[in-house]
Amino acid sequence: MATTPRSGGSSSGAAQRPNGTSQNKSCQFKLVLLGESAVGKSSLVLRFVKGQFHEYQESTIGAAFLTQTICIEDTVVKFEIWDTAGQERYHSLAPMYYRGAQAAIVVYDIQNQDSFQRAKTWVKELHKQASPNIVIALAGNKADLSNIRVVEFDEAKQYAEENGLLFMETSAKTGMNVNDIFLAIAKKLPKNDNNPGTVIKPNGNESTQTTNNCCK
C-alpha cells in the first residue's frame, strides 16, 4: 500500500531484505504542471512537496523545479516536477518543459470557466506535441470554494473521460486530493526497465534524492 509522501531529510524507511539491502527499485519521472495563471499550480506543488499552503502565492516566472517521492508497493517513484508560469507571455516556453515529460497535470480553477477552456487547449497541445504515452491528469483546483463554483464537476469529469484523462477536484488550501492525484499518476506510469525515459536503479544508490521514501 502507498502512503502519504513526506519531504525533507535523506532517503530512509525502505523495506529491507534480511541482509540489509533494499527490496525496492526506484523510478524517476518528469512531470509538468500547466494551466492559466492564478489557478493554483504552485500551491498544489507546495502542498504536495512540503505540506504547506500560502494564502498569497507569488506568480511563477518561467518555471519552478521541485522533487518529491512516493512509494507504490515495491517501487519508489521520484517525480521531477516542473511548475510552469501561466501568463500568456510564457506560453512559448512551455514546450521546453513538457518535452520528454512522462506526466502532466493540467490545472483549472473551478470558479473560472475561462481557465477550464484554457485547460482544454493545453490538453489538445499535449496530445499533439508531447510524448505519445504521456499520462495527463486534469485537476479542478480550489474545491474548497465549491459553493461558488462555475465549472460543474460532471462537466469536467465527462470531458476527462472523453479525452482519456485522470480527473480529480483538488484543494491546495485543505489538501483535498492533492497527494491522491500524484499517486494516481504514479500508478499509471510504467515502472519497468523497458520504459524509455524511466531511470531505474537500486534504491540505496539514489544519492541525490532529498526526500524521504514513504515505504514501510
Automatic annotation (TrEMBL):
A GO molecular function held by the record: enzyme regulator activity
Family matches, as CDD domains: Rab5_related (cd01860)
Any single Gene Ontology cellular-component annotation: terminal bouton
Gene3D superfamilies (UniProt xref): P-loop containing nucleotide triphosphate hydrolases
This protein's record includes keyword Nucleotide-binding: yes
Keywords noted in UniProt: Endosome, GTP-binding, Hydrolase, Lipoprotein, Nucleotide-binding, Prenylation, Protein transport, Transport
Source species, domain of life: Eukaryota
Documented EC number(s): 3.6.5.2
InterPro entries, A to Z: P-loop_NTPase (IPR027417), Small_GTP-bd (IPR005225), Small_GTPase (IPR001806)
Name of this chain's protein: small monomeric GTPase
Upper lineage: Eukaryota, Metazoa, Ecdysozoa, Arthropoda, Hexapoda
Gene from which this protein is expressed: Dmoj\GI17188
